[in-house]
Design goal:
This protein is an alpha+beta fold. Helix content is about 30%, strand content about 30%. It contains 9 helices and 19 strands. The strands form 3 sheets. Strands 1, 2, 9, 10, 11, 12, 18 and 19 form an 8-stranded mixed β-sheet that branches. α3 crosses α8 (about 330-345). The structure holds flavin-adenine dinucleotide. The site of flavin-adenine dinucleotide has 43 residues, from α1, β2, α2, β13 and β17.
């Protein structure tokens, strides 16, 4: 039987940033990250990985600002990380101007423009556009693996090991693993991405009201120019991202398909995905309307109020759920991690007072 101070279930971008936060907060703590697959292979691997400096609510704007500074500091410390700053252009309907100007952070420095690149639908009396700063995009799977690498060997990782059960035992929890091993932990973080219905935690998570929605990002096989940046279509909740290192564009848009199972999303892009994407392109970038033909399909967890959920599931703050970031789990992960570590502060303080169990 293994015992650790903290067990984190889920080695995606959220689980790994939480591991980093706990190691920083409690350097003596023993931390174990468990993943049924490889680190950085769930939603994180399929992510478009765009950070933009905005939030629909005050809390999300605060989280976006925090995460933006966090990623900037990571990149400054290690310029080889797969994070690329990119210029930003925001396009909206004229009726949404106030919403746009409230949603973007001050440091985005939104500045109105009166013309768009010729390959986009031209501005009219009904539309508005801004340039801004603060965007970056990442290869989220690779970044997650880089974070994991920086945490080893102080943090242990068990990959290809599913967590099958989770039981309260004494003041902590016992995890039953697919390998037959049992692990006890003083505190547990559940960061399972869209795998909310796993038998080990389904009943505990059902009251949170989280649902899983399909997320689609299509590839447009045309090379972006060196100066091209991301174009955010505010009203469609969509964006065109130049993947400079891959020599193509990515179109991310909002799918309307709910309650999908992450283990069954194996069919790839379907005709309705292409039709939904086409709707966005016809309106905003008509020259590209028929260019989106392939891409990546997966899903993400969405909360009822569209803010990330970081919640203690017991009274002592020894079992914490973190995730449900509504298609923004990359850009908000650092702020989610801070909130999770804060909820675990009693367990963190105990480790700091007593030293590690190992
Ligand atoms: C196509 C697409 C585009 C996206 N674009 C963006 C974007 O541009 N910007 C942005 O911010 N976000 C974007 N997102 C959302 C973002 O990728 C996710 O919110 C984020 O990756 C979630 O991270 P996570 O760590 O919670 O989940 P995951 O990365 O899914 O990690 C959860 C991990 O838990 C593991 N796990 C689950 N169950 C068990 C179990 N029983 N035992 C052990 N391990 C288990 C899984 O194997 C998985 O590795 C996009 C998502 C998709 C799918």
């Amino acid at each position: 039987m293994t015992h650790v101070d903290f067990a984190i279930v889920g080695g995606g971008i959220i689980g790994c940033t939480i591991a980093r936060e706990l190691v920083l907060a409690a350097p003596n703590a023993s931390v174990l990250v468990l993943d049924q697959d490889a680190v950085g292979s769930g939603a994180s691997r399929r992510s478009a990985g765009l950070h933009f400096p905005r939030g629909a609510t005050e809390r999300v704007r605060r989280m976006a600002g925090y995460s933006q500074a966090y990623y900037r500091a990571l990149l400054d410390a290690d310029p080889a990380l797969p994070i690329r700053p990119v210029p930003m252009l925001v396009v909206s309907d004229r009726a949404s101007v106030d919403v746009v100007e409230t949603a973007y952070l001050d440091e985005a420095g939104l500045s109105r423009v009166d013309a768009l690149p010729e390959w986009l639908a031209p501005l009219s009396d009904e539309t508005a556009a801004w340039t801004g700063e603060g965007c970056q995009y990442a290869d989220v799977g690779a970044l997650t693996r880089a974070l994991a690498r920086s945490l080893r060997p102080r943090t242990s990782f068990r990959e290809g090991v599913r967590v099958d059960s989770l039981d309260r035992v004494g003041s902590g929890y016992e995890l039953g693993l697919g390998t037959g091993e049992r692990v006890t932990a003083d505190a547990v973080v559940l960061a399972p991405g869209p795998w909310l219905a796993a038998p080990a935690w389904r009943e505990r998570l059902t009251p949170l009201g989280v649902r899983v929605k399909k997320v689609v990002a299509l590839h447009i096989e045309r090379p972006p120019a060196a100066e091209d940046g991301v174009v955010v279509f505010h009203d469609e909740d969509a964006f065109l991202l130049p993947l400079h290192e891959q020599g193509r564009w990515l179109l991310s848009y909002t799918s309307r398909i709910w309650d999908v199972d992450p283990d069954r999303l194996t069919g790839g892009v379907c005709p309705s995905d292409l039709a939904e994407a086409r709707e966005v392109l016809v309106r905003r970038a008509p020259r590209l309307a028929d260019s989106a033909r392939s891409g990546r399909v997966f899903c993400d967890a969405y909360s009822a109020d569209r803010e990330p959920l970081v919640r203690a599931l017991d009274e002592e703050g020894r079992l914490v759920f973190a995730g449900s970031a509504n298609g923004s789990g990359y850009r908000l992960a650092p702020a989610i991690a801070v909130e999770a570590a804060h909820l675990l502060r009693t367990a963190v303080e105990n480790v700091s007072d007593q030293g590690s169990h190992r």
